[in-house]
Amino acid sequence: MCGGGEQIFYSSEVRGMAMTPDVPFEEFFSRVAEKFGRKPDEISMKFADEDGAKVSLRDESDYDLAIETARESAKGKPDGKLTVWVE
Fold first, then answer.
1. How many CA atoms, within 13 angstroms, populate the side-chain half-sphere of residue 44?
2. Residue 13: band (very low, low, confident or very high) from pLDDT cuts 50, 70, 90
3. Which helix (H) or strand (E) holds 62?
4. CA 13/CA 24 separation, integer angstroms
């Protein structure tokens, strides 16, 4: 996020996607679903927090936490990264 990118895992696929932190949650969710040929109501997502634990990504507050995690992972660099699992 933060001008960086996401590494997205779905089934046996690993895809990348560049996003900025100002993208709204609904748009992010729709873009991820579209990337794998799914509708938003057909998927669920989790992201890796700063400890590597998988956290559900279901609403705006989860999304805010994911963005903050990406910022922290950047450690002062301009680009942060976020790992997302799609089910």
1. 6
2. very high
3. helix 60-74
4. 25
Query: CA 17 to CA 76: how far, in whole Å?
Result: 21
The residue written with tokens 């969710």 in the block is: 29
Q: Is it the case that residue 26 has pLDDT exceeding 50?
A: yes
Q: CA-to-CA distance for 70 and 21, rounded, in angstroms?
A: 9
pLDDT surpassing 60 at residue 63 = yes
Query: Helix axis angle, 25-35 relative to 60-74, nearest 10°?
Result: 80
User: At 51, phi and psi to the nearest 5?
Assistant: -95, 0
Torsion sign, CA atoms 10, 13, 17, 77: positive
Q: What domains are defined for the chain?
A: 5-86 (3.10.20.90)
* Residue 16, H or E segment: strand 13-18
Of 30, 18, 16, 12, the C-alpha closest to 78 is 18
- pTM of the predicted structure, to 2 decimals: 0.82
